[in-house]
Amino acid sequence: MTKRALITGITGQDGAYLARLLLDEGYEVFGAYRRSASLTTWRLNEIGALDHVKFEPFELAEYNNILRTLTKIEPDEVYNLAAQSFVGVSFEQPLYTSNIDGIGVTRLLEAIRTVNPNMKMYQASTSEMFGKVQAVPQSENTPFYPRSPYGVAKLYAHWMSVNYRESHDMFTVSGILFNHESPLRGLEFVTRKITSTLARISIDGRGELELGNLNAQRDWGFAGDYMRAAFLMMQQEIAQDFVIASGRTHSVRDFVNAAANALDMEIDWSGENENEVGRNKKTGDVVVRVNPKFWRPAEVELLLGDPSKAREILGWQAEVSFEDLVSKMVVADIKNVEEGRLPSRSLE
Ligand code: NDP
Ligand code: GDP
């Protein structure tokens, strides 16, 4: 019989890659979307999944809505990708973030337990739970120390997922995913902000990229690879949690250099802290500037994941390298600028 999957957060980056993968695996895919004045369908369209996903209005703040959705669809697998996913915003909207990213997950777990506890559930946990890291690299055994309302809410949800597995014998798995990016990434995240802005600067010959902490280090991978890991976790006999990471880390400054490289631009860095600037070596123009407004009240300085468990048990490893990821994003953003598909200024 055809398996049914319900993906919450279907309009986001990961929703698109996971929908594509599950459709290719022969699943009937239901996409739970949050109602808004304009539904974000471009990612699903881009990936060729839009016409094949069945849409369901869905809101993680509404217990009864979740309950009715599960009763109606009767999915075999539920992938909970929905969240207020931006760390920066969570400092300004801590209550909303806690409600959706934390309590929202308990609502979903409780609804599954009520409707049919045999439904499997994937929870989108995050490396942000490691925050002020207690060990390098971070594995499934590393103690957590979240540094933002987002990280705290996700950690609560993570333990709830573990607790429902242990208390009610439910198949719940949490993927502790490190940062994963793609041409479908939201424009407010640093990687896409860099590739979209530098692509515009390279075409217009003017403009500046304003960033916060250039020294922060992240273990960046490709979203398509990471959704394959999420799928594999749900196909195991035993429900357990996995770190999903590339095992390499780079600074934000490294990412800028790599993106500039892909655009045939070389950056000359000078100055320190808020006075640091990056100049186009050829023209001498300032292309990167630090703006303290993008500094966070508490920062996660270094993330580096150890994906050994995923390699051993899931047979998973990241296929797309850091360099290929950056170049994929730059190429896509050049096309986006040329075709007028990007906003003319950053909203952040
Ligand atoms: P996105 O921000 O691209 O997508 C988030 C999705 O959640 C959107 O579809 C959004 O809908 C939906 N959503 C937000 N609030 C609600 C709500 N109240 N009810 C229902 N749906 C809601 O995130 P990603 O695709 O990048 O990430 C997917 C998940 O993985 C998230 O939970 C994120 O926190 C987590 N994660 C992501 C990592 C990454 O590097 N990408 C790393 C680790 C974890 P709308 O379109 O209406 O805004
Ligand atoms: P996060 O790891 O989930 O917070 O993903 P982001 O892409 O939002 O941020 C990654 C890192 O880049 C963090 O350490 C940020 O502080 C840093 N960073 C530096 N400048 C910026 C910026 O302008 N925007 C964002 N989003 N992050 C920035």
Structure description:
By secondary structure, the chain is an alpha/beta fold. The chain contains 11 helices and 15 strands. The chain has helices spanning 13-24, 42-46, 63-73, 87-90, 94-115, 149-168, 190-204, 223-234, 252-262, 308-314, 322-338, and strands spanning 4-8, 28-33, 54-57, 77-80, 120-126, 172-177, 180-181, 209-211, 217-218, 221-222, 242-244, 250-251, 267-270, 277-280, 286-290. The protein has a 7-stranded parallel sheet, with helices on both faces. Strands 8-15-14-13 form a 4-stranded mixed sheet. Strand 14 and strand 15 form a beta hairpin. The longest helix has 22 residues, at 94-115. It is globular, with a radius of gyration of 20 Å. The N and C termini lie far apart (47 Å). The model has no long low-confidence stretch (mean pLDDT 97). Bound molecules: NADPH dihydro-nicotinamide-adenine-dinucleotide phosphate and guanosine-5'-diphosphate (GDP). Guanosine-5'-diphosphate (GDP) is lined by residues 87-88, 128, 179, 188-191, 193, 211-213, 216, 218, 252, 294, 296, 299-300.
Protein traits:
7-stranded parallel β-sheet; globular; 11 helices; binds NADPH dihydro-nicotinamide-adenine-dinucleotide phosphate; 348 residues; alpha/beta
Compact description:
The protein has 348 residues and is α/β, with parallel strands linked by helices.
Tell me the layout of helices and strands:
Blueprint: E1 4-8, H1 13-24, E2 28-33, H2 42-46, E3 54-57, H3 63-73, E4 77-80, H4 87-90, H5 94-115, E5 120-126, H6 149-168, E6 172-177, E7 180-181, H7 190-204, E8 209-211, E9 217-218, E10 221-222, H8 223-234, E11 242-244, E12 250-251, H9 252-262, E13 267-270, E14 277-280, E15 286-290, H10 308-314, H11 322-338
This protein binds NADPH dihydro-nicotinamide-adenine-dinucleotide phosphate and guanosine-5'-diphosphate.
